[in-house]
Amino acid sequence: MKHMLAALALGAGLAGPVAVQAAEPQFKLLVIASPSKYHFEFIPVARESLMRMARLHAFEIEWATNAAPLEGELGRYAAVMLLNTAVEDLNDAQRARFEAYMTGGGNAVVVHRAAIVVPAKPWPWYEKLVGRSVGVHPMLQTGVVTVEDAGFPAAYGIPARWVWSDEFYTTTNPYRVTISPVLNVDETSYDPTKIWPGQVSRPMGPAHPVAWYHHYGKSRVFVTTLGHDGEAYRDGRYLDHLLGGIYWTASGLGQKRLK
After folding, report:
1. 200 in Cβ contact with 170 (< 8 Å)
2. By CB distance 3.0 to 4.6 Å, which of 60, 142, 150, 209 could disulfide with 25?
3. What does the pLDDT read at residue 22?
4. Distance between CA atoms of 130 and 50, rounded to whole angstroms?
């Protein structure tokens, strides 16, 4: 009986509170997902999916629905993600602090609407950071996205030909920035001229990148123009695409040089 009581006491001790060390976050990501006229329904969906992604992959997200955090200390973030952010809403101080962060070696992930600079509020420095200037965007259509760089992490979860529905932005390169395309869209798979009345959209031809990366000084920049619809942020392949871009941007790792 004494032995049984001792065993029960030992078992009770083992069942008591145990200090469990939480996984150390690999890095911290600032996500700015500010609502705009055509981009707001995505926010709760994207937040839930990205927070789950962060828990699964042991990194930390600080989430904001306005650009105020850009006025704080940015050096603690491995990267800043502008998620459908209307960058024309950034005030002068926020623009200046973001420029200083990037000039100092910070890194940026730019998603869909955040690639657009409204002509009425020009920001040439930012257009150079993005690497392309967005003109018009044809109506949301189903098309075929193709992998241009299978050795880049943002392409690892994407098939060689991926049927996807989005606004396939047309872009120009007025600042002659060299980018490395990751995904293209096959213009024969949709109508690149289909747009709203009063606007004109012209095809870009075989080289129509919809996701790319480049180095901007000391900084890493990943851009994906995909991600218009809120439901995209529930799609596993699209989330794999974002994860690969975040992973490379924050760490500089994961890229495979293909022969």
Report:
1. no
2. 60
3. 58
4. 22
